[in-house]
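Curious: why these numbers?
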Amino acid sequence: MVNTILVAIDGSPKGHQALDMAADLANKYSADLKILHVLSNRDISAELRHMAEVEHLVQVEPAMPNKSVDMPCNILFAKDSTIEYRNEYEALTALAERIVDQAVTHANEAGVQNVTSDIVEGDAVEEILKTAEQIRAGLIVIGSRGLGAIKGLLLGSVSQKVGQQSKCSCLIVR
């Protein structure tokens, strides 16, 4: 029996479908649901940048002198009509928080009784597998293709690696 379900989300359409599936299964099995988003140590992808702009979280501007020497561009982060400059990492973190908050709300609205969430940093495959072991997940639910589609084609997708290396059952939502 599945007592705990881990769903890995990244804000992609497949990630949303994985969340829907995980919430449905959590309801059917009265299971706990853990929502996980992994921040990787990379620049913001074009897809994430577009998502942030669509969600009105950030406006991407060219780098301004003396604002951020270590990052390739600055991002204007709009919050409560206040705009402040942030580097890409801070903008990525803010976007991750928004994605996770929306996922928790969605799961609660879908009727899931016990929802927890976490944002971790590192390699997506390693962090998903580590979290699954820590919470003793009976099932991992993950989308088949996230926001890093080109990288996945070249190196193998996160979902494929999680499915191969997981010690528990893994459902890849297509």
The longest strand covers residues 32-39. The two ends are 23 Å apart (CA to CA).
